[in-house]
Amino acid sequence: MNDVLQPAGSGSPDPGFPSRVRGCLLGGSLGDQLGHPVTASSREGIRLRYGAEGLRSFGQLETARISGTTQLALYTVDALLEALEWANAGTAADETACLWLAYLRWYAGQEGGFPDAAPQPLPRWIDAQQLLQERRSPSAASLAALATGEMGSRARPINADTDGADCVARSAPFGLLPRVPAEMVRRLALDGAALTHGRPAAQQSAAAFSSLVHVLVHQGAAPADAATAVLAATEAIPAAAGLAGRLKAALRLGQAGPVPAEAVSGELGAGLEADEALAVALYAVLAGHASDPQEHFRAALALAVNIDGDSSCTGSIAGSLLGAYYGEAGLPPEWLAAAEGTDEVNGMAGLFLAQTVG
User: Fold this and answer.
1) Structural domains of the chain ordered from first start
2) 67 is known to lie in a ligand binding site
3) Does the keyword Hydrolase apply (predicted)?
């Protein structure tokens, strides 16, 4: 990685890979925690609860709490960590099988045991973290898929009609992997999403998101440049035509600056489905641009969560992107001080870095 890259508008040197990893994971968690209290609320409901400007800051929350969105993102990290441990020991591992086993361990924490037909993998460090076992509005689609005890795939989908945004939000870690070709990042994300979400649109959205993270982290690109590159790759995939259209609209809207919320939903959707959530989060990152990284983070997250759709996921996606871009310097200290789960997130980031740096 080039250590002299200058993130556009930051005025500071490249934050470096470790800071980008921590920034991405912590940023995703912060976005999840800001959006989680309103993830089932309409825009009007959010305004009635938090005022005309909606929910904009951790200071408006009674208590900051992670949801299953952050839990599953960290279990994705753990699956990649296990595959890296095998690889660094000289043994090849099936990354998608590692993902499935990790998600089954998360399921066991949520439901009190493994599905009857599923294997029972041995516990790992993450499974001893009580916060990551607590039931925090887990994805119903993911629970239902894992409950079958079968390993979903693109060829043999489980939940064939499911296209919720949670499979996207948990996919940021794929983009963090160093020394991995872009096509492998896409494959890992596609196969990881297919474990629980059968709709191709959901799988392609997860792949596009992880690709955005990969370009931000490993090429040092600005968000608009990363989005342009990922859009070009997405347009070349016939199965991703709908997603490509939403990403193009998000780029156009975001580069014009903030627009009325009704225009966002009219162009990008409510943010409930996977491609909608990714488009809304990307729009928020672009439209919320500010010269100060932390102000950019605050403004973008406010745009991302004040929607009709899945605010937990849109917040997490936007926070992950900006954390990947700025590193830890982009995260508001007062949000981190009020946040839940920073020890667990930093713990997983440290374990991941131990296997990838050096």
Assistant:
1) 17-42+65-89+99-110+125-144+164-356 (1.10.4080.10)
2) yes
3) yes
Q: What is the pLDDT of residue 260?
A: 87
CA gyration radius for the chain? 18
Alpha helices for the chain (secondary structure H): 17-35, 43-50, 68-88, 95-111, 140-147, 166-169, 172-176, 182-194, 200-219, 223-235, 241-255, 261-268, 274-287, 293-305, 311-326, 333-338, 342-356
Q: Which residues, in sequence order, are bridge partners of residue 273?
A: 164
Torsion angle defined by CA atoms of residues 172, 174, 178 and 182, in that order, rounded to the nearest 10 degrees: -110
What is the 8-class DSSP label of residue 113?
Answer: S
User: What are 134's two structure tokens?
Assistant: 């607590």
Q: Judge whether 310 is annotated as a binding position.
A: yes
Q: 333: helix, coil or strand?
A: helix
CB atoms within 10 A of CB 294: 17
Report the predicted TM-score, pTM, of the whole model to 2 decimal places: 0.96
Give percent of the chain above pLDDT 70: 96
Q: What is the pLDDT of residue 4?
A: 30
Task: Please give the Cα distance from 151 to 147 (Å, whole number).
Answer: 10
* Residues 316/29, Cβ–Cβ less than 8 Å: yes
Phi, psi of 164, deg, nearest 5: -65, 160
- How far CA 199 is from CA of 194, 203, 272, in Å, comes to 8, 7, 14
Q: In the structure encoding, which two tokens stand for residue 266, read together? A: 């009219």
